[in-house]
Design the sequence.
């Protein structure tokens, strides 16, 4: 169950990239235990919004706060796990070395790294390939490894950019189950352009179009409204629905 | 910062490229050392007849270290080309930013990794003339100064390589740009030297002006400051470019 107080708050966040307004006055919040789906067609501004939440990009305007604290503080960023759309990977390192390096970058000590790596290898079914090079993994395995690095420091907020991209149906089902399990103890934001992914995993959905929030409502309330809103956006007829 | 340096060193260690480059460098430098030593031994009767002429350190050890600096014109750009341009292509920069690492720390970490590799090669290369120390009478002061000059010079090359890697979108472009910059710095005063003209700002900016005194055993603060300025300026530019990437996207 999502808690009442929001963990993450975006207020009037805007961002321009290459002379184009990619994110325009976006405001929403995410509570602990909640899975928020960020839905939109390609180029809607989903990845840019997630990059700002993860602290990878700085907003031009507006604020992104975690528990009321600004993201400039490294201790705040340590509470966020981020999986970008393109899995960040050093292909010459083995799975274990990669996770160990990610743990070091996050400032984890040796014992904590060992504990976390063992936990994530087991959780993401990567134990059998701990000594394989990252560059030799399949796309699905790379996605799981990317998810492992995002979870390594046990973040309170999990930010996943198109986590289902390139996965086969079995892997997609496993990923959905995993995200539902993970979200019980943390807030999760997932970006996607696939409506069925949102319906399968999320408690709430925000539809972004041309950088603006066009729909923001709990999923359970009215699935028909979500379908209509997203199709309206996809066909270029969307106004602000909620 | 040290986690970045450690990560980059680890990545260098598992790449055949760094080992191959190191092995080729050591082989070439060792071969040139033997040639230099042979020429020195052949000239011994003539040198012994003239009191006060140049000795082993001037004619063998210092030029041997200088050979490594000349090879570093190529090695440093090759080792640093992936530093930031490679991270950009592998989409791993967001991982570093998301971990809360400041651009300056990322750049410094990569610089430390690059100079660790280059200085390790320098130490191995410096061991060659030292193996003959018992049979000759090296000028330890001059040798130490030459070693310091070489260390500062290759560190400057590494810093320039990292700056070029921060600005380039592709590692190969970064390597070419770094090679161009270090070549320009090296040959800046070549025309003036050939025509016998000395002095002027070109002379001051040129790298040989500041490296040559070290080779003669002279450690001048202005030369040390020159190399430190190149390092600081290059790393500051790289950090600024990385910070702008976060702000501008």
Sequence:
């Amino acid at each position: 169950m999502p808690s009442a107080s929001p963990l993450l708050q975006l207020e009037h966040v805007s961002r321009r990239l290459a002379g184009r307004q990619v994110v325009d006055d976006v405001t929403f919040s995410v509570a602990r235990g909640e899975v928020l789906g960020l839905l939109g067609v390609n180029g809607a501004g989903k990845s840019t919004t997630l990059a700002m939440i993860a602290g990878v990009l700085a907003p031009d305007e507006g604020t992104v706060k975690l528990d009321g604290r600004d993201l400039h503080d490294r201790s705040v960023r340590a509470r966020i796990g981020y999986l970008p759309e393109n899995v960040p990977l050093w292909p010459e390192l083995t799975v274990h070395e990669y996770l160990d390096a990610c743990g070091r970058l996050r400032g984890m000590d040796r014992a904590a790294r060992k504990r976390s790596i063992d936990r994530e290898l087991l959780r993401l079914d990567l134990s059998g390939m701990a000594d394989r090079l990252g560059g030799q993994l399949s796309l699905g395995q790379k996605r799981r490894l990317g998810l492992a690095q995002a979870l390594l420091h046990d973040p309170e907020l999990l930010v996943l950019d198109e986590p289902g991209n390139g996965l086969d149906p079995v892997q997609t089902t496993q990923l959905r189950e995993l995200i539902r399990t993970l979200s019980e103890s943390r807030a999760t934001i997932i970006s996607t352009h696939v409506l069925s992914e949102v319906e399968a995993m999320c408690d709430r959905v925000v539809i972004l179009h041309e950088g603006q929030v066009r729909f923001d409502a709990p999923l359970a309330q009215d699935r028909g409204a979500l379908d209509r809103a997203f199709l309206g956006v996809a066909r270029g007829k969307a106004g602000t629905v909620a | 910062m040290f986690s970045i340096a450690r990560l980059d060193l680890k990545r260098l260690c598992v790449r055949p490229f760094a080992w191959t480059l190191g092995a080729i460098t050591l082989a070439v430098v060792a071969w040139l050392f033997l040639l230099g030593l042979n020429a020195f031994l052949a000239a011994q009767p003539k040198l012994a007849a003239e009191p006060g002429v140049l000795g082993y350190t001037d004619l063998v050890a210092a030029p041997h270290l200088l050979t490594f600096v000349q090879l570093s014109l190529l090695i440093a750009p090759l080792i640093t080309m992936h530093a930031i341009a490679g991270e950009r292509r592998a989409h791993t920069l967001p991982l570093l930013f998301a971990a809360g690492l400041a651009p300056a720390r990322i750049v410094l970490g990569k610089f430390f990794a690059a100079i660790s590799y280059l200085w390790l090669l320098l130490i191995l290369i410096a061991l060659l003339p030292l193996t003959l120390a018992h049979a000759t009478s090296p000028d330890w002061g001059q040798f130490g100064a030459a070693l310091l000059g070489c260390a500062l010079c290759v560190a400057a090359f590494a810093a320039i390589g990292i700056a070029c890697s921060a600005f380039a979108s592709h590692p190969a472009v970064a390597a070419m740009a770094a090679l161009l910059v270090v070549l320009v710095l090296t040959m800046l005063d070549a025309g003036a030297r050939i025509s016998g003209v000395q002095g002027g700002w070109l002379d001051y900016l040129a790298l040989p002006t500041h490296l040559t005194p070290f080779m003669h055993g002279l450690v001048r603060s202005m030369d040390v400051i020159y190399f430190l300025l190149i390092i600081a300026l290059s790393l500051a530019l790289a950090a600024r470019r990385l910070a702008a990437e976060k702000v501008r996207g």
